[in-house]
Amino acid sequence: MLKILVTGGKGQLAQCIEKLSSSYQFELVFRSSSELDITNAKKIEQELSNYNYDYCINCAAYTQVDKAESDAKKADIINHVAVENLAKSCAKSQVKLIHISTDFVFSGDNSIPYLEDDKTLALGVYGQTKLEGESKIIQNLDQFFIIRTSWLYSEFGNNFLKSMLKYGKEREELSVVFDQVGTPTYAMDLAEVILGIIQSQSKDYGVYHYSNEGVASWYDFAFNIFNLAGVNCKLKPIRSKDYPTPAKRPSFSVLDKSKIKSTFQIEIPNWQDSLSKAIQNIN
Ligand SMILES: NC(=O)C1=CN([C@@H]2O[C@H](COP(=O)(O)OP(=O)(O)OC[C@H]3O[C@@H](n4cnc5c(N)ncnc54)[C@H](OP(=O)(O)O)[C@@H]3O)[C@@H](O)[C@H]2O)C=CC1
Ligand SMILES: Cc1cn([C@H]2C[C@H](O)[C@@H](COP(=O)(O)OP(=O)(O)O[C@H]3O[C@@H](C)C(=O)[C@@H](O)[C@H]3O)O2)c(=O)[nH]c1=O
């Protein structure tokens, strides 16, 4: 039976993986941040060398995009330095690493969906530290899958879907930006793809893009959330300049998913269909 370590075991994506785990014949070991701090290089090395894992899914990350701007050191240690150490320990213990990265490694200057080899240029600290984490994996490990994804939401953790449901109940009107375009992704769909890659025991290592199908602005995302959940809150489309945030975000971060679809023979659900499922699961 394949043995898999999941770091960041109490985060959104890790909880989605846990929810699906009974459908797979894997031995999954979830370690929360307090049980296994990925910035503790010695503990990571011990964990990987002592327990004979086949795979590590790194769900641990510093994910607060705005806070990272004033907390750059911490974001760097978790998203970059710790990931480098994790990659080195995986190499030493022959553990395959599945690492999750982000659409925020791109600047947003494209007008067509981003391919894996397109030029990266992060606009903020979060994206930059995630990008450096990616590079360190590529430099230090052969057996890795880096999956860049975007706009994750689910019934677990903190995310845009849950924020909109909360604010929609509390407020009469909400303003949401319509000039940042990407693709919302149901974290359960990503979890399924990750477990599928492990099940296939594929050796097609490398960088992949995965999001749901389709394109939306954050305003479109919020509009569909309110519609599907029956939230009676007026929604106002605004420009990013009218919603100032510490971190600049890409205006276009749609990912091209041709590579992951053809390599692993998967079909990807449309974001609106998946959103509808997530809202049903929340209810
Ligand atoms: N959320 C999104 O919209 C997107 C996320 N991603 C990427 O997907 C991955 C999963 O994200 P998601 O599940 O949403 O994120 P979450 O923020 O829900 O989960 C991250 C987890 O990492 C843990 N963590 C933080 N620091 C450490 C540490 N030093 N050691 C161990 N664990 C730590 C956190 O624990 P604690 O809370 O205790 O600190 C938390 O449980 C991340 O790599 C993220 O960059 C990519 C694109 C979009
Ligand atoms: C809450 C809110 C946000 N917004 C805007 C701010 C921002 O531009 C956009 C998204 O807001 P959030 O801060 O919730 O999402 P953000 O944390 O930027 O989401 C990102 O998280 C990281 C981890 C990723 O990797 C990305 O793929 C992406 O999912 O919506 C509004 O316009 N109105 C609002 O009421």
TrEMBL record:
RmlD-like substrate binding domain segment(s): 3-281
Pfam families: RmlD_sub_bind
Reactions it catalyzes: dTDP-beta-L-rhamnose + NADP(+) = dTDP-4-dehydro-beta-L-rhamnose + NADPH + H(+)
Record CDD domains: dTDP_HR_like_SDR_e
A GO biological-process term: dTDP-rhamnose biosynthetic process
Cellular component terms per the entry's GO annotation: cytosol
InterPro entries named among the record's database cross-references: dTDP_dehydrorham_reduct (IPR005913), NAD(P)-bd_dom_sf (IPR036291), RmlD-like-bd (IPR029903)
Coiled coil region boundaries: none
UniProt superkingdom: Bacteria
EC number: 1.1.1.133
Pathway(s) of this molecule: Carbohydrate biosynthesis; dTDP-L-rhamnose biosynthesis
Alphabetically ordered keywords of this record: NADP, Oxidoreductase
GO molecular-function terms, A-Z: dTDP-4-dehydrorhamnose reductase activity
Family, as annotated: Belongs to the dTDP-4-dehydrorhamnose reductase family.
Protein task: Catalyzes the reduction of dTDP-6-deoxy-L-lyxo-4-hexulose to yield dTDP-L-rhamnose.
Protein name, entry field: dTDP-4-dehydrorhamnose reductase
